[in-house]
Model the fold of this input.
Amino acid sequence: MSQTSDNALKTESNRLIKDKLAKYGVMTGGVMVLCALLLIFFYLLYVVKPVFHSAHIEQKEVISDLNKKYATVSIEEQNEIAFALTETGAVDFYSVDGKNKGELIHSEQVEFNSQPVIFKNGIPHQGLYAYVNQENALTIVKPFFRVSFPGNKRLLTPVVNYPFGEEAMSLGDNSMFEVKDIAFAVSETSVGAIYQLANQQVLFTKILGEENMFTEEIEWTTTQVELNMVRGNIKGLHISPDLSRAFVVTEKQLFVIDTRDETDVNLLYSVNINRQNAGKAQVTSSALLAGANSLMIGYSDGKISQWFETNSDSGRAFINSRSFQMETENAKQSVVQLIPEYYRRTFAAVTPSGEVNLFHTTSEAELWQGRFTDKPLHSMAFSPRSNAIVALSNGSLVLLDVENEHPEVSWSGIWQEVWYEGYPEASYTWQSSSASDDFESKFSLVPISFGTLKAAMYAMLFAVPIGLAAAVYTAYFMAPNVRQIVKPTVEIMEALPTVILGFLAGLWLAPVIEENLPGVILLLIMLPIAIFITAFVWFKLPRKIKESMPTGWDSIILLPVVAIVGYASFALSPAVEQWLFDGNTRLYITNELGITFDQRNSLIVGIAMGFAVIPTIFSIAEDAVFSVPKTLSSGSLALGATQWQTLVKVVLLTASPGIFSAVMMGLGRAVGETMIVLMATGNTPIMDWSIFEGMRTLSANIAVEMPESEVGSSHYRILFLAAFVLFIFTFVFNTLAEFVRQRLREKYSSL
Done:
């Protein structure tokens, strides 16, 4: 007896130990899952946070007591050597980093046939400077840095290049009057210049270089055109890098001139830039932004307006899209200089007292405001990598470090409409990359978030009715021996790789549906009708025939019906297409109805992703319905309720928490699905509920673009922000699901 008691105590003790181990093991696992989720959450925040940092500018080096009066200054991309040019042709190179910091390391003098009278900066990314001499001849120079590696150490050697030769190029037959102002640009072997003479005449000259096939020398052909359409006191001259547009800014007018064909130069737009209700505000400065698609105009009251060409209801137009306001401590806010970055839409605005504001057009943000020095700024320039600024101020050269890695990203730019260059109006747009360095990035997450919800919605429209109906029938009506076959078969479907489903949807299903679209429509109409007719006929059959069918096997009858109706629908598709859609359904939808039709569209995604989601919904919902105690349904039937009344009023209400969980689990699966959406749609980030158009989802966007994004770039961090948004989506859906499930459980637990 005592031995039996001892064995029982040992068994009980072992069971308690196992129970505690299981309890703490499960608890530890749960805590670790929560910790993993929190780590993912905070890691995503850690990667995303830098895109919202404000710009920071800090003085790094000052070279004082310069012995020359320089007209402009710039710096090479490594921020090691700055160079300054005088109006008389001296080019001096200063070391601003390393052991020779602050020293003049090289000086070179540009040779002229006659005294230069005009000096002009070129477009920043071309790095060119022009001198016009007394004979109205143009000399173009380019400070250049040769890279060598003596002793395995990188060495920069500054030189001055002459891209079009040291011999000055004539601007044309205008030697009677001096050039008063000029703007120039270079495109391959061509030079374009728009300039004003002392007699107020405005001319355009294109100098084209062609290689002589016999002597292999470059021969220059000069074409000069007088721009008679320009009137007024000129405040600025500009020309695009591809020589296709010239811009003339006067006190009240902006003239945009087509210069693509030098033999047919014509006026495209004449726009009034005299702002209404601006009092005595005057135009004080202007500059082309990177890409030369936008012209910035500064005024004496501190306003800066952005102008670019776009489509309008009446055709092409040159419009004022947005404005910026200088924020300064000094009362004088007049914008005397506008300095753009090399490639981004960031620009600096400078007042007469030397106060600087940094703006970015796409994000419509003021990035920084302050002073570089206590003295007025004579000239300034961004470094090619935009991580430094070099400035001239009263005989001193000032180098500043710039931290401004993500100026194009702002909360409004991500979630609100933005008016991009060339667009007719503000829009939600995702376009993260292009072949051009000066591309205006578009980082709106709205269209891809919309695409995520759209894909999930169409998938759920397909999956929920089928999954829930199948689950209810299998759990409540189907014979047990049939259920043992059907349930595992449907659950095995969940093991199908989604990449296979996406592959089949994109390469097989999409063309089939496109070719047989009338058949698909017929199937949607005829199948429910055929099922109801079959049920009605079965209902009218003699009882003896109906009783010969084993209970729960009724659904087998519908299999041949579905097969026959499906075959008939697709067989009749060509005839219906010829009869109703003139033989081509796609053309009819596109041309007659005006609806865009993509082969890989929301219908394909709904079917393919719905097929992937059905097993999840079916399995959870079927378990929930099957788990309802038989005593509840038996009691309901015993009280006189029919099977349908029992199902609707008792079984489904009791199982509603599980059914709702099944739907929300399916929704979570659909929101996070990647491969099916990636392969079964055109991945176009558009906002349209049309079933015949595609979409781009958050998960597919990350999968497509993450491999090509530069680590640490704005694009890279925005993709992590997309992942964070997807994380929030699933978290919100799951939280709501759990909340509703608990409420349903509390409400119907007494049944």
Summary: Residues 2-48 form the longest helix (47 residues). The chain has four domains: 60-103+372-405, 110-271, 273-371, 444-748. The longest strand covers residues 137-148.
